[in-house]
Amino acid sequence: MxxxxxxxxxxxxxxxxxxxxxxxxxxxxxxxAQIGQECGVGENVVRRAQELLISQGVLExxxxxxxxxxxxxxxxxxxxxxxxxxxxxxxxRQDMQALGRQSDWxxxxxxKVPAPTEIAARLGIAxxxxxxxxxxxxxxxxxxxxxxxxxxxxDLTAGTLVVLPEGxxxxxxxxxxxxxxxxxxxxxxxxxxxxxxxxxxxxxxxGIQKAALVTHIRRTYYSDQGRPVETADIVVxxxxxEIVYEIPICR
Length: 251
What we know:
Helices cover 27% and strands 34% of the residues. The chain is of the alpha+beta class. The strands form three sheets. The chain has a six-stranded antiparallel beta sheet. Strands 1-2 form a two-stranded antiparallel sheet. The chain has a two-stranded parallel ribbon with strand order 3-10. The longest helix has 14 residues, at 6-19. The protein is elongated and about 65 Å long.
């Protein structure tokens, strides 16, 4: 039987100290050098152990301050379902209300952005064709819990009241309801979730460690004619959120 990697052994030791209340929630851990000396390993081994525990929500890293035992924090339930599209309101806001949390989001839209190769393929357009790109940061009680970057073909909404997803009379109405305004019926969405590590930028925006696990969801909305009308990259931190898929039953 192969020996357990050193960083997993150290992660178990650090976790055990928390279980035994040697360190309490909110306590700052000793330096990596000190832990490494106590455990007989190098600082890189301690770093990997801490990154693993951060990805699991046991520890949290604070830029410029150190590593701390994570405070008890209820995971946010993120429900994925096309059936939750409403004429008014936001599914995200509904989820937060159900948890008794304040919800909000920040967004930034850029029009006439050339489509990168992957986005063009997902939208069924030529690389470099113009799109409307909107980036979102979703907040629960003022803390970021989800990121999203949305792309829509510019020629689909140009010159209409819904060209800006977060501007005009239909701001924040969601893809399905906005497309209905211009006579486009969205029939279904396809989502492809996969786990990966957060990028440096994502970690900074979400307040998590760079090595922390996230779920990356590639979502594309299609019209009833089969045309992709929007595609998005949604990033959810695994330690802070649980993703639930709600599947309507057709009768």
